[in-house]
Write a structure and sequence with these properties.
single chain; alpha/beta; Rossmann fold; five-stranded parallel beta sheet; four-stranded antiparallel beta sheet; 7 helices; 9 strands; 34% helix; 23% strand
Length: 222
């Protein structure tokens, strides 16, 4: 029995502010469940835009995007937001962590928006910390962490809702070698990410080398 098709882009084009110059032009892409796919390309090639399109954060100018058979273009903003919260774990380049909160508070925050109670939130966040091996850091303020440590926390937070699809935007960019290796070890097959559909945008060839499939984005945005 074959894998299930979970993401489909059909003839997708994207431009901004009414420009006739497309970031993407008639892109067709199909991704099956459990795939580790890397979108490899230089800075400015549109990798982040690809993730934003897949997660419904931005809409295509033309074409259709389906997630688990559901047409994103047919969804209103509220339904899109709910689908995103329940389906995706997203690690943005900017990380979007709250520096005044502790690590464990940041990790459990997405569960607040899903209406999950405090005791269950803390239980799940503690389990994520255990799997990553940073339980002793749970009460540290995020504002006191290094860039690499914040990246690890961002990945942990993206896992808290047990998403089927994980999107990572340049997860090793600007990290020192030790922290980059920690991120790579999580991606390589740690139980936290196993069996999930993972899409990573990067120009880091180390990540591309462990991917099941690599797509190359060559065109730079003017």
């Amino acid at each position: 029995m074959g894998s299930k098709l979970v993401i489909s882009l059909e003839n997708v084009s994207k431009s901004y502010n009414g420009s006739s110059d497309n970031v993407f032009e008639k892109v067709n892409l199909k991704i099956e469940s459990g795939e580790l796919l890397v979108a490899h390309g230089p800075i400015g090639s549109g990798k982040t835009t690809l993730l934003n399109l897949i997660s419904g954060l931005t809409k295509p100018t033309k074409g259709q995007i389906q997630i688990n058979g559901l047409d994103l273009g047919a969804m209103g903003n509220n339904r899109l937001a709910e689908m995103r919260a329940r389906t995706f774990g997203i690690v943005h380049q900017t990380q979007n962590l709250i520096p005044e909160l502790t690590i464990v508070e940041n990790i459990e925050l997405p569960l607040v928006f899903l209406g999950i109670g405090k005791e269950e939130r803390r239980k799940r966040a503690t389990e994520i910390l255990r799997k990553i091996g940073i339980t002793k850091m749970a009460e540290r303020l995020v504002g006191n962490l290094s860039v690499g440590e914040r990246e690890i926390v961002a990945i942990a937070r993206s896992m808290i809702g047990n998403p089927a699809i994980v999107l990572m935007d340049e997860p090793t960019e600007a990290l020192d070698p030790i922290m980059a290796e920690m991120v790579l070890s999580l991606i390589r097959g740690d139980s936290l990410l196993r069996k999930k559909t993972i899409i990573i945008t990067t120009h880091d060839r180390r990540i591309a080398s462990i991917a099941g499939r690599v797509i190359h984005i060559k065109r730079k945005i003017p």
